[in-house]
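Contributing: when you submit paired examples, paste them exactly as shown. First protein:
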Amino acid sequence: MGKKAIEISNLDVDKLIQMLNEALAEEWLAYYQYWVGARVMEGPMRSEVEPELLLHANEELAHAELIINRILQLGGTPILNPAKWTEYAKCPYAEPVDPYIEEILKQNLDGERCAIQRYEEIADYTNGKDHATYQMAITILNDELEHEHDIEDFLTDINRLKEDIKKFRL
């Protein structure tokens, strides 16, 4: 962190680096959860949902890059060993053992809601104290809110499709 940044910051930088490393671990796990889920997913609307999940995966990877850069700017060290990701992450990785599209989407929705909470915490911690980290957290938070909305829309569409099929069968 630069001299002026240190001068105007009013927070525990070590605590912030820990929070960012936790978020970093979660972003890597989210990337893989989206990526592998999109690959193994089965069911209705798969061809519409898969590209969106892969887009979300790439956005999670971009978040990881932002976080790594910020950790380094703060004088910290990002998690160096992928085996530690699950140890650091407070948002759990949900293995897609049931490849049905609704289950994959529900797992991703749970992950997004956890990420939203994570970035609210980072934004609250840095608001008015570390403007660069605050802005990064808000930017990522907005992406996570959009992801949540996308997934909710897909789940609504699938439920509507199921209701229409029931009507058709009667």
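Second protein:
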Amino acid sequence: MIKQKELMGNSDLDDYTAEAFPRGEVLQVKSGLYSLLGRLFEEEVDLPLLELLRGELADSLAEAGVILSSDIAEGDPVQVLSALAEEYTGLFVQPGCVSPYRSVFETGRMFQPPCDEAAAAYKKAGWEFQHRLSGEFPDHMGVMLTFISKLYSAEADAVQKGDEARADQWRDMRETFVVDQIGPWGLGWCHRARILAQQQFYASILALAEEVLMDEIKELASSDQFQELVTLNRRPPVKLDYNADFRKASGI
């Protein structure tokens, strides 16, 4: 996780526009959306989050295309959380999953240069990555989306204080991070995980994330850069060709 990470941001996911609402409010809404997506990808749904999904967030999620099925919305919480945890593990954790790490997507291995790039971006912005979950690294999709949330929130704070120069700095950090570090793989990761999801909940959350990132990247990237990123996202995740004899000899 990123130190001082908030569980949730602004929970209103309505389609705000700069013409209808102050810039600071728009930025806070976007921060809340990225915070929610980051939380959902970083770890399993727990009871407090399930209650938010069923209650305070239900209408806004429905407007964003995430409609809770009756079994999730009304089922026994213990059974619902168990089913969602099983789906989460199958999609993002167990062997053969759609690994949520940029390093794995691009190299087939953990803790490679993309991990260092993400950690450097967090440090430059004044935050420090800290391990909270076993095996978690800075280039986890959930952590990266949470970082975007924090950049939106910092920009909103600067706008509300009238510090346009600082707001521009936060904006530049966010735009660079989205294009350079999410752009080459995020859309492809969301798409592959979505088509493998068994639970409609995760399929719709992944579809929302893919749509949000697509809109963001389209807005920020030039035409040529966007086409290049689309091509990169069409790559299948890298799979290393391990030698079976080596595995046998090493006792694995």
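If you have annotations for the second protein, write them as plain sentences, like these:
The two ends are 31 Å apart (CA to CA).
The chain is about 65% helix and 0% strand.
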